[in-house]
Amino acid sequence: MEKFFQLSARGTSVKTEILGGLTTFMTMAYIIVVNPAILAFAGIPVGPSTVATISTAVFGCLLMGFFANRPLAVAPYMGENAFIAFGLAALGIGWQQRLGAVFISGLLFLAMALFKIRPWLANSISLSMKHSFAAGIGMFLALIGLYETGIVESAVQGMPAQALLMPDGIKLGNPPVPLKIGNLHDIKVLIAVFGTVLTATLLCRKVRGAMLIGIAGSAILGYLLGVGEAPKAIFSLPFTGDYSIAPIFMKMDVRDCLKLTFLPILLTLFLMSFLDTLSTIVGVGANCGMLDKDGNLVEVEKPMIVDALSCMFSAAVGSSTSGAFIESAAGIREGARTGLAAIVTGLLFLASFFFIPLLEPLQHLKYAYGPALICVGLMMLNSVKEIDVEDATEAFPAFATIAMMIFTYSIANGLTAGLVLYALMKLLTGRAGELKGGSIILAVMCLVYFVFGLHH
User: Fold this and answer.
1) For a FRET experiment, which of 25, 91, 410, 434 has its CA 20 to 30 Å from that of 388?
2) Closest Cα partner for 33 from 410, 370, 355, 314?
3) pTM, two decimal places
4) Buried b vs exposed e over 347-357: b needs ≥16 C-beta within 10 Å?
5) CA 23 to CA 369: how far, in whole Å?
6) Total Cβ atoms within 10 A of residue 178
7) CA angle 356, 361, 365 (to 5 degrees)
8) Contact 209, 334 (CB under 8 A)
9) What residues contact 267, with CB distance under 8 A and at least 6 apart?
10) pLDDT, tens digit, for every residue of 133-189?
């Protein structure tokens, strides 16, 4: 293990990696239930979809650990699954074609990674922009945690529908404000506040396993107060009965996706996935010392090859676009620095095959895992100090990246806006010579996304 994973060289140990992998799993295990629930709106059956989701996570995490040696967990993306389920609903295409589009995008990723086009594009981004990815992702995670736990809620929560109707009496108008503080009399919200304070306190005291202790403490407290949910069963056998993958395995329709009419779909899915993975790998890497002196991720092509292969595998088994998960930051915060942590996460997903009924209540334990996301956001905010705020051509696009990620609830929107504005600011201020070829190509791709893509 020492030789293969280079534990000492990266300042870690087997114990630390196991803890990091376990923490990452705890913060992203919700995907086992949430992803199938979302894809069900596209017509993909929940039982097989659950097995496909876990299969993709196992494949991606193990490949990331053994091949790329990075502490990045892989699973079907949130955001892309919603695009597959809801964003394409109006086009009247079946889930087979949607999975075909996922497979083609993965194939394009693989070609770009093998020819080192994707790493070249990634390494053409300025250091300030890379750190803005980290800060933006951190704040995005914090918002997810705040919203999921109910500490922050929609401003329309509890309002009668009539209050939002426009003069025509049909369409809904904008609320006076988008968000408001949650119901502090709700026991689940109070447990989430407790969990956040507990986790933050443990982090301040540099207690090992702070995230995991916070999650466990909140879950136990919720159960004792009667707001937890007991599982209906404990064990299950994958690939049999309701959990057979046969109805969706290798059912993707690639041929129909090669039609010209599918170009906007492929473009949108390609850029969303490319930028989500890029921001996660670079952003998390910037936050945990995985960048070299020039601000580039060492051997960035390896995790990108893993991402591409996982995406293709995901489509083949019947799930949505997959890639490196931003929740990996939770495990990295616990000290994970090698692929051993990703392998631990993958093995835990493998074990979950047999405990799907036991894991189903996780979707109701938002008050338990939400505080971990909030605290990860706090720790990733550290990257802001690496942004060159004295140079407006660096600071403005970095600020736009962070703001758009948070306020449009989309990592892809933040990156596309930031990369376009970065090139634009350099051109308008007469500093076009500072632009690298890759940054220009990325700006053009992002501009195409805004003009012709299907935004989410």
Assistant:
1) 410
2) 355
3) 0.74
4) bbbbebbeebe
5) 10
6) 10
7) 135
8) yes
9) 448, 449, 452, 453
10) 878 878 988 898 899 899 999 988 888 878 888 888 778 788 888 899 999 999 999
C-alpha 407/C-alpha 403 separation (Å) is 6
d(CA 325, CA 316): 20
Q: Where are the domains of the chain?
A: 9-150+186-452
Distance between CA atoms of 422 and 394, rounded to whole angstroms? 7
Q: Report the DSSP pairing between strands 74-76 and 322-324.
A: antiparallel
User: Token pair 């025509």 is at which residue?
Assistant: 168
C-beta neighbour count of 249 within 10 angstroms? 16
Three-state SS letters, 81-117: HHHHHHHCHHHCCCHHHHHHHHHHHHHHHHHHHHCCH
How far is Cα 239 from Cα 55, in angstroms, rounded to an integer? Answer: 11
CB-CB contact of 231 with 42 (8 Å): no
Q: How far apart are CA 212 and CA 214, in angstroms?
A: 5
CA R_g for the chain: 21
Copy the structure tokens of residue 295: 């601000």
* DSSP tag of 363: G
Pair of tokens at residue 167: 């003069």
